[in-house]
Structure formats: structure tokens, C-alpha cells
Amino acid sequence: MSELQTVIAPINYLPRGTETPEVRNREYGQDALRNYNYQTLPTVIHDGRVDETVYRLDVHGFQFVREPSILPAHLRDTDPVIERDYYPETKAILKGATGAQDVIIFDHTVRTEDLYATRRPVRGAHNDYTENSGPQRLRDLLGEDEANKRLAEGRVAQINLWRPIGAPVYSSPLAIADARSVKPEDLRHTALIYPDRQGETFDLQYHPDQHWVTFSAMTPDEAILIKGYDSAEDGRARFTPHTGFDDPRTPSGAPPRRSIEIRSFVFFRNNN
To answer: What is the pTM of this model?
Structure first.
């Protein structure tokens, strides 16, 4: 790709050699305490606008879609329109993009860069779930028996749908690693510790073979599907590291990033 189709920007990685990485935080993560310091490295990030149609969930771990939304420009986590109207809208998008027989939405987060924001963009390369915490989250959601039944019936995947709110995103855009370029040893299990529970995520260690993609100036009528876990172990993408980053192309005076991510499980019969 030419220089006009790439950008070099800093990305925060887990340093290699970190022992038992863990993150302690409150429910909303504003006081997160890590037992390590990020390794910040200049990284080549390719602009997916060159060909938005080539990226596929099962191949690359993410997929770009053009799907206008009913969401209002000013939105908070607690606005009833999210569960009432946006959840059904998102289910339809996920079914259409994946061919899944069933979709369960279990969570959402509105992120902003506003001064008093509760949830800000995450600035560290990570994947939301691991081969352990993906199935465990399903068990927490459905109960042991129903989750095991679903896993036995066919393939289960965890997918996030990420969308800008209100205006195009120029500040703190999203970068996603092509799952094919991420080696298993690049992913490290990280304990995610809350006052009342413990989860597990993957933090990403840098490797020069990793291939990063962003979609510049995404609008509220566009979205990215990101696969966080897949029960299939047949060569499909299973984990897709991603992060917000400081884009040096951000124009002066650009509005702060506002986005929403919807977390879901999608279900396929016969591992299709």
C-alpha cells in the first residue's frame, strides 16, 4: 500500500516477559490499576477504506458494514432507546451478516472522550474474551445447563458491534488486528479483577508480523463487527485484538470520539 493508505501511530502493547498480567478496577474501569506498564510502539496501520468489502469475520476477525441506525446523536448508557430499539436493530444486522440462527445481546457500553465520561476509549491492544472466559460468560448469562446445551448443539461466537455516535470519528479511532496475523503466543491471559468478580481477557504482545487496520472517518451509519471468541477450532478467526489510538491525521478541533459497542453471542447449528 502507498503511504497515503497507511498511517504510523503509537499502539500500547503488553511487554513481553510480563509475569501474570492483571488489571484491578472498579465496575466502570476509571481507576484501573495494572501490574505492568504498557510498551508503546509506533505501528503501521492500514486504512480499510481502500477496500471495505474484503474483510470477513471468519477470516480476518472483523467486518465493516454500512447500516444506518435509529440512534440519536446525544446518547447515554442508560437511555431506554438502546435496549428498546437498538438491540433489535443490532440483532438484525448480526443475523444478516453472519447467517446465525439466534442472537442474544447481553451488554452495551457508550464510550466518550468527554471530560467527565464514565467510559472512555480503551488505549491498549486487547481482546475482550479468552478460550476460558468466552464460555464462562455464556454460562453466567444462560446458566450451566443451557450454555452447555448450546455449545453442544453447534458453534457459538461472541461478536461486538461498534458504531460511532452523532458525528464521524476522527479522534481516537479504532484499530483492529487482522486475526490471521496474530500468533497464539502473542496473546497473553490477563486477569480482570473487580471488587465482586473476576474475568479474563487477552492482552496483546507486539510482533512485527501483525497487520493492523482502521477505517478512517467512520460515520454513525457505519459499523464494525468484531469477533471476540469462537467455539470452533477449525481455522476460523477466534480472537481479534483491537484498541483506540491517537491518529496523527486527526484534524485540529475535531470533536471527541463518541461510540457505542453492543456485545452479543450468536449461535449456529451444525458448526456452520
So the answer is: 0.94
